[in-house]
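Thread: "does anyone have the structure for this chain?"

Original post by V.I.:
We have the sequence but no experimental structure in hand. Need at least a predicted one for the grant figures.
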Amino acid sequence: MKLQTRHLLGLEGMSREDLTLILDTAVSFKEVLERPIKKVPPLQGKTIVNLFFESSTRTRISFELAERRLSADVVNFAAAGSSVSKGETLKDTARNIEAMKIDMVVIRHASPGAAHFLSRVVKANVINAGDGAHEHPTQGLLDMFTLREKFGRLEGIRVCIVGDILHSRVARSNIHGLRAMGAEVSVCGPATLIPRGIEQLGVKVYHRLEDVIPHTDVLNVLRIQLERQESGFFPSLREYHRYFGVTKERVAQAGHAITIMHPGPINRDVELSADLADGEHSVILEQVTNGVAVRMAVLYLLGSR
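Reply from O.Q.:
Generated one for you, tokens below.
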């Protein structure tokens, strides 16, 4: 089977068949990561450039590991110190890189739509590693993979995304992907951090954790970006933690086990208490491991078209 698309720009509108193919393929690559020799040859001879216009640690390292595990030649590009700092446009940067005969481009950019724009001006396969507050498709996929691994399915799983939904590309990719696979998705956070009209995406909206916790199987807790407090989206970190911090006491009110997720990095004891982050129901470290397997699957499927 092959993906129905040449690029991975977002999970919005992606078919259930394509999503399932990526998740199924990731199972095989996770087995590869358990071997003593973790390298396989599918992308030998392919050249991939990681085009990061925003700072990143986890995503960039995860993609680079995935690329090298598949035997690709890897070029890392950072905007700082490059011609971008001298005024070069994204279009010129991309075309110059493609002139070097690049096969695939992984891009992270602060502007929503940057990956879509890039896919229209280069011949290489484009993978979106996060574009502004739009989407982060491989994070959505690794979250879905982690849940399917734990529950054996995605159909009917009740997932609540907690925190800054307004500015979160992770939330959008999770909503699109999980909904396509039959999961029930809700969001919870301060009214100032919930986008207007988000109900149109098929999610339920809550403004109190106590109202949603009894009716959920999974809490995917988003990082609070500290600059949001300075921008007036909520009064203080103490106030946020008081009303929306995911704590052991709150989760205990559910009366059943709740799986804890977080895309990282965690502000411990702000959006998520340390004991839950490290607790028996946390799958946060599994998300990191699964990120490499999922990105290997995406790279392999796009690179073998």
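V.I.: this helps a lot. DSSP finds twelve helices and nine strands in the chain.
O.Q.: and The CA atoms of residues 56 and 108 lie 9 Å apart.
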